Amino acid sequence: MTTYATDSAPLDLAAIRERVDAVLEEFLERKASVCSRLQLPGEVADVLHRFLFAGGKRLRPLLCVLGWHAADNEFGLPEPVVRVAASLEMFHTSILVHDDIIDGSDTRRDQPTVHRALAAAHRERLDPDRFGIHAAIILGDLAAVWSAELLHSAGLTSHQLASAIGILDCMRTDVMYGQYLDMLTTGLPTCDLELAMKIIRYKTVAYTCERPLHLGASLADAQPHILTALSAYAHPLGEAFQLQDDLLGVYGNPAMTGKSNLEDLRDGKHTALVAIGLKNADPKQQEQLRILIGNSRLNESCAAVCRDILTVTARPKIDAMIRTRWSEAQHALNKAPFPPTVIQALRYVADAVVARNK
């Protein structure tokens, strides 16, 4: 696989992340101050702050800013655009908090998930685990509310705000349907690859890549051909991102990923990896996979059996699918009507997506 030079991007991606983090830091500090003044529970802002700053790639805010630069040739980065980008990360926090509850996850970013952290902080209760789940649902809802507040207080023009709301409405709907499809199929994996890819398109492609790029571009009043070119890049990139994520969910090192490599197998997630594995497995291998995948008591030795089978029956195909989609994203940039520095930055992002180990 040919790679492009990625030692440094002319657009300072690290600086963009730092500006996004600065907005989030200032916003949460202000919320903590209000909590203190009104004598409200301080742990609300504290827990969300710890979660937000425990890690995270800031991919969605970064793509939002790159969407802005793709449509705006001045290369300034106004503060309202940064605040809109930060609102995406706050919304992502809401999604992750709720997702961890749905999946019953214990860790995220090598830290206890929000519902586990809240349960641990309230062990004196009769049912701390129940409290932790209920409290985390509220905190996830609050993160969604605060995401909207970041957007509405960003200082956008009325035209920019109207454009942004339309895209965000679609993005939020996409990811909710993706989550629902994921829930419907969890525990019932089949060899239906198209269904697995449909989940990816709703849960990841639109939410993680396409809508953030479109959001940033819309703030610069992008022409339709810019949005079309961004979609041509985002679709294969989003699929590559999730396919890589599915590999990490089974083969990843928890010390690197910050989350378990057993949960997807225990839950019986209907991923492309599992769908292809079931399709290509011989009868004995199929029987083993069907017994083990979705077994809530699956341990490391049983997971190793699954990994061995999937390594033979599915992983080479998934690796090839990731390479193909990486190539399609790179090819889309060959004819994209973006400034050269934006193209280079987007190439950098594509390389990072397929090379990541966490």
What does this 3D model show about the protein?
- Belongs to the FPP/GGPP synthase family.
- The structure is a single chain.
- The protein has 358 residues and is an all-alpha fold.
- It has two domains: 12-156, Farnesyl Diphosphate Synthase, CATH 1.10.600; 157-357, Farnesyl Diphosphate Synthase (Orthogonal Bundle), CATH 1.10.600.10.
- It has helices at residues 13-37, 43-52, 59-71, 79-103, 114-121, 128-152, 158-185, 193-219, 224-251, 254-257, 263-267, 272-280, 283-292, 300-313, 315-334, 340-355, and strands at 107-108, 111-112.
Distance between the first and last residues' Cα: 20 Å
Find the CATH superfamily of the largest domain: Farnesyl Diphosphate Synthase
Kindly provide the name of the CATH class of the largest domain: Mainly Alpha
Biggest sheet architecture: 2 strands, antiparallel
CATH topology of the largest domain: Farnesyl Diphosphate Synthase
- Unreliable stretches covering 5 or more consecutive residues: 1-9
* Helix count from the secondary structure assignment: 16
Strand content: under 5%
Structural class: mainly alpha
Read across the widest sheet, the strand sequence of neighbours is 1-2
Total DSSP E strands? 2
Q: What percentage of residues falls in helices of 4 or more residues?
A: over 70%
Gyration radius, in Å:
21 Å
pLDDT averaged residue by residue: 94
H/E series: HHHHEEHHHHHHHHHHHH
Organism: Nocardia terpenica
Keywords: Magnesium, Metal-binding, Transferase
Pathway: Isoprenoid biosynthesis
Protein name: Geranylgeranyl diphosphate synthase
